[in-house]
Specification:
Helix content is 46%, strand content 17%. It is α+β, with helices and mostly antiparallel strands. The strands form seven sheets. A five-stranded mixed sheet has the order 13-9-10-17-16, with no helix packed on it. The longest helix is centred in the N-terminal third of the chain and has 18 residues.
Amino acid sequence: MSLKKALRSGVAAACIASVAVPAGAVAPAVKAVAQRGGPDVRVATAETFSRIEIRGGALASRQGQTVTISMSGDPDVARLLTSPPKWVKSAERKRTAKGVQLVLTLADNADVSIGQADGATYVNVFEKAEAAPADPAAAAETVAVAEAEPPRPDPLPPGGVVRMDAKVAGGQTQLAFTWANPAGAAVFRRGDAIWVVFDAPASLDVTATPRGVRPLRGVQAFKGADHAALRIDADPDTPIFVASQGNTWTISLGPGPQSQPSIVRVSRDAAGGPATLKAPVAGATRVINMVDPVVGDTLTVVTALGPPKGIPTRRDFVDAALLPSIQGLAIESLVEDLTVQRDGEIVRISRAKGLTLSPAWATREREDAKLGAPQPAIMPAIVPAEWAKTGEGGFLRRYESLFAAAAAESGNKDPEAPVAARMAMARFLVGSELSYEAIGLLNALAREHPEMLDDPEFRGLRGVARTLSRRYAEADTDFSAPSLADDPSTALWRAYVATQLAQYGEARALFVKGVEAYGLMSPLWKARFARADAQAALAQGDLIGADTRIRMALEEKVDPEEQLRARLVQARIIELQGYKDRALKVYNAIATAPVESLSAPAVLRSTQIRLELGQIKPAQAALVFDNLRYRWRGDATELETIRALGQLYLAQGRYREALEALRSAGVRLPDLPEALQLQADLNAAFRGLFLDGHADGLEPTQALALFFDFRELAPLGADGDLMVRKIVRRLVDVDLLPQAADLLKYQAENRLDGVPKAQVSTDLAVIYLMDRKPELALEAINASRTTVLPLALSAERRLVEARAWSSLGRHDSALEIIERDTGKEAQDLRAEILWKQKNWAAAAPLFEKSLGDRWKTATPLSSDEEGRLLRAGVAYSLAGDEGSLDRLQSRYQGFYEKANNPEALRVALSGAPTGRLSVGDFGRVSADNEVFAGWVEKMKGRFKTRAAPVGTGKPAAPPARQAQASPPKPAAKG
């Protein structure tokens, strides 16, 4: 089993690479053409050649000096017809039953190159090369040197120097090389070094290399007769990305958003003759022999134009090795006579006597043939034990034998090609519980043969593989296929999936439907299905049914680990039957098992029972739970442990620790039913703290910090708004006004609309005024204006706005706002504003009027009433209204003795100092600070009694947007 685990990381990739061509390797331009519904013809002319490129499907052929291009659809070729490019005499369009033909007549001195690159068909027209020399020896020498390069603009800039531009951004180091024209390049790894090779002999200027920036360690530049190269020392396993844009190549080191290169497929050349490898490299430009100065050997490098394409992993053969590349090819020769040739875009690797390509397993004994390929089961979702048999050769030999047959079969791209070898490989992988590898193989098979999606066995195999990998939703999609509708074996698997998703009622019904297939299952899966049925019965309270099913599981001859898993469920049944002591003994026994997936839930259950029986204290249980949640992770046991720990902390009043524990698993394993239960506990705990009053015993600053740290748990709607209001009241009580304002501002801007938003914004403005921030108060009022508001709310908003303008010194504006308001609060505010304007004659009657007939009641004056009387007397005195001053004195002189400040009253109402308080001192007594403090206390009282806003809130935002809109945690007020 350990060998299979070691193979997991590479098997899926190998299966997919050998079975099917990757989907999605289509350039964006091709997609755009497909959307338009026809080919796209493009024409361009350079100094040495003209190019006609057709994207969207075309077939080109040449006969003498005539080139015929056949296409479907009716593309726009007006430019080509009216103004043919250089070296093309004329162009003619002919319509056929299948589409359009373009007939190009070449000039007498013109030659043509036809091919395909990056999903497009191209026709390159250029001047004919001069005739070959008559001397046979010279001709032979010419052939021996190299094939003539296709004409393309020289990439070398004037002076032959290419400067490297370096940039460090977003955690990446980017090295850019700009040429005069597009240059071919190869980028590959060798050991810890990254090589960049260009197909032009330029001098690379690397003076701009960043210093002290990881992962880059150093750069060396080399120049050859036909190439320029760069050797980059970087940290091991550094991600590399290559991009080509116009004349610029960019090499990026470090993680980033760039896309991966397309894959160059290396395969055996099907043509006759000695064994040869071939690789189609789009845009290949040159084969270069380059010396590695560190190793001392010679590498063969194939450069190509962009976009990037390469070989993702090292490919080892007997005679050569292909190094992992991001662009182009790099071949490491292991023999002296290895030859690498380029024929257009096809690169061939060969030897005179042929390469040695036969794998070692091709000559193995006939044991594999005797063992045979895994055969289909009697029902689509049956997993026979024989599928996992490996024979005397062991797992690796069996795996390689089946893999070789599947890979050979996948080379046949005929739609009618057989699929038996790949299905046999899938059966072996499923039987060996290599689920991810089986999924990769079956998905590749479905892409190549879509008709397999209607095959019952294919659906059953992939559904089983997805179940084993815990992809329950995907598994249910396969099991729900029409071809499996009445299959009993599929019903068992659907029941098993339903149990894992806590759909216990459906699971029990499906187990009944699958009873016919139960006896055909292997002992291992009979035990697992019976155990799952017992869990479903247990969840529904059917202890008798659960006990019957678990006994069936224990009857099967399976390995000790599976038996202990059944015993774990049996212990839970015993516990719920009321025999906790017996269950505790079973749990304690299982807890000693060396398998963590068994011992962890056993420790959890035994600790819960011991706590319930009073054998340990809550602090001891909390320590066990806290250690256990880090000891075992990745399944329902982890979530159950965290849930138990959170509940224990809540019961002890350790609210922050409880919320942190419950939240720690909020994003882990979201598909498990235990995750939903844990999230429900978390939300309930938060509601209990801030709605039910459990947090009322905390200090306001502690409650505020707790709320802000877990504010994403605040429910949407009226409950969430009420929660915020309760927090705001406590903050206002202790003068934490900035923090209260932040909460209300977030609520107004992100959670409310209409009248509720206007009400909350009014409260926000009041808090800003209490905090002496009138500008922000006006912003809050202006940002929440709406057309229809209740009359009382409109009047309140006018008063707040007027007070804000008055605080800014705009007294006339404030008076205009409340000009028509005759309410008591408006009269009081008007009197304050007139007082600030020193309009004594107008302010005094308003202060007197606010007292009403208070002089008729003999009880002592309150602080607020005493302040109004003082201001009325001062204003009458300063206005020179002796008659009104005498009236006030005659009415209120009986209140002097019981006043808070009797001397101030005497001075204010008589103007005659007594020697203990001068006339100038009563200005301090009746200062604005006293009035402001009184107003603040009045507003605090109002916050305690005001109800939460009622109305329709904003639609719920996506979680990410809510997180972005959350208010920043306010700093503590010092």
